[in-house]
């Protein structure tokens, strides 16, 4: 397999990301706002969305094609997307994914921006989710920090 390349996706190509999600049976959608990131290895093999919120971002839509899982695609996407995204980045995940996100420098969030707190409360009516935050979005923003991605 070719190693993937991690790049931002132009807004005009948003429908390609929606197609990628549908092709794999995912109900995820490309965010109408914010940054779209993809992993490409001849074809799209992974994606995520970073939507501006408060003084940071909300990470959603992280999905890796099944045949590419376990090969560092998700970690590479997160690292590339957060490298130039100042401020904290929040996400909601299934409890089984907490250890994966902890390896990417995310910790359990003790507080959320108001708009995310209300969204999480609404989502938790039908499923169990954990709110996490990566307070330092860039490995270069604090030299020597051992928790950097």
What does this molecule look like?
The chain has 149 residues and is α+β, with helices and mostly antiparallel strands. It has one domain: 3-Layer(aba) Sandwich (Aminopeptidase). It has helices at residues 14-23, 73-82, 98-103, 114-123, and strands at residues 5-9, 35-41, 43-53, 56-64, 89-93, 107-108, 130-134. The protein has a seven-stranded mixed beta sheet with strand order 1-2-3-4-5-7-6, sandwiched between helices. Residues 137-149 have low confidence and may be disordered.
What is the gyration radius calculated from CA atoms? Answer: 15 Å
Strand arrangement across the biggest beta sheet: 1-2-3-4-5-7-6
SSE order, one letter for each helix or strand: EHEEEHEHEHE
Helix proportion of residues, in percent?
A: 10-25%
Strand content: 25-35%
Please give a handful of descriptors for the protein shown:
seven-stranded mixed beta sheet; Aminopeptidase; alpha+beta
Strand and helix map with partners:
Layout: E1 5-9, H1 14-23, E2 35-41, E3 43-53, E4 56-64, H2 73-82, E5 89-93, H3 98-103, E6 107-108, H4 114-123, E7 130-134
Parallel strand pairs: 4-5
Antiparallel strand pairs: 1-2, 2-3, 3-4, 5-7, 6-7
Describe this structure in a few short sentences.
With 149 residues, the protein is α+β, with helices and mostly antiparallel strands.
